[in-house]
Write a structure and sequence with these properties.
The protein is α/β, with parallel strands linked by helices. 34% of the residues lie in helices and 14% in strands. The radius of gyration is 22 Å and the shape is elongated.
Length: 334
């Protein structure tokens, strides 16, 4: 049997790529920037599998030209770039890489939070640009206390819970909002489940950890930003469109909230003329929350494991559309 063909849309870490190259007839898009949609469409015509990243739009347009495509293995926990409904209809399996990036992503939410509250980026600039002319001043670059403050977690799944756990080390009170009950958070962290409005009104730090779906698009909008404390900070390292950036700009310039820290944007890369980038009370990063060497390697390995399992006729460990097995039952294809 000839090896199944896989198109890998970027040079993923060696730990996964090595397995893919050994087990499959693999082609890898060699550039740093993502392949244009036309390239994905062209390559999809003749492959059994795609290994995708969150910047690749994988939708009906791709599926329509890909009669042999059986699985899309994404290297990310989020998969809002993939039309899973269309995939399922066509018997195409979709997998992601949950779990391994939880702690790394939670660490980065905290890096953002601390940078915003204690003005780390502003302070760095201050020193480097020669503004530090007075050795010490009582109000120089004063920020907000984290220790003992109230943390509000919007979306208390794996990552949200890991962020909450860290908050306990800072003796914070933790509020959380989720559409599903999280009794373990109440039990283990003494975290309090509240509605979104109560969370926004009562938190000093609001950290967003929901997936992007129809229901979460612009979840943090003008009306909700207005509920937040004037001294509060918004942290988002989930997906950009969960926050209405125009409303956030208003909130930051009109003093509805104190600051924000963003690793994700409505458009990525965000244009350099995004008005948010002109504000000192905003800390930004280019969607790197899971970017540790260890975690990215593990994510790549999971992509390979999902692909290998599928072609061996086993349920891929991280299948996001289990109902697909009704459309295309698993069979050994290696
Ligand atoms: C990164 O944003 C991911 O979804 O893994």
């Amino acid at each position: 049997m000839s090896k199944p063909k896989v198109y890998v849309t970027r040079e993923i870490p060696e730990r996964g790529l090595k397995i893919i190259k050994e087990r499959f007839d693999a082609e890898v898009w060699p550039e740093y920037a993502p392949p244009p949609k036309e390239v994905i469409i062209e390559k999809a015509r003749d492959v059994d599998a795609l290994a995708s990243l969150l910047s690749d739009k994988i939708d009906a347009e791709v599926f329509d030209v890909a009669p042999k495509l059986k699985i899309v293995a994404q290297m990310a926990v989020g998969f809002d770039n993939i039309d899973v409904k269309e995939a399922t209809k066509r018997g195409i399996y979709v997998t992601n890489t949950p779990g391994v990036l939880t702690e790394t992503t939670a660490d980065f939410a905290w890096a953002l939070l601390m940078a915003a509250a204690r003005r780390v980026v502003e302070a760095d600039k201050y020193v480097r640009t020669g503004q530090w002319k007075v050795g010490w001043h009582p109000s120089m670059l004063a920020g907000r206390d984290i220790y003992g403050a109230t943390m509000g977690i919007v979306g208390a799944g794996r990552i949200g819970s890991a962020v909450a756990k860290r908050a306990k080390g800072f003796d914070m009170r933790v509020l959380f909002y989720d559409v599903v009950p999280r009794p373990e958070l109440e039990r283990e962290l003494d975290a309090k489940p509240v509605d979104l409005e109560t969370l926004l009104r009562g938190s000093d730090f609001v950290s967003v950890h929901v997936p992007l779906m129809k229901q979460t698009y612009h979840l943090i909008n003008e009306e909700r930003l207005k509920l937040m404390k004037k001294t509060a900070y918004l942290i988002n390292n989930s997906r950009g469109p969960v926050v209405d950036e125009k409303a956030l700009y208003k909130a930051l310039t009109e003093g509805w909230i104190a600051g924000a820290a963003l690793d994700v944007f409505e458009q990525e890369p965000t244009p350099v003329d995004n008005p948010l980038l002109t504000l000192d009370n905003v800390v930004v990063a280019p969607h790197i929350s899971s970017a540790s060497y260890e975690t990215r390697s593990k994510m790549a390995e999971m992509v390979a494991e999902n692909l290998v399992a599928f072609f061996e006729g086993r349920t891929p460990p991280n299948l996001v559309n289990p109902e697909v097995t009704q459309v295309r039952p698993l069979t050994k294809l290696f």
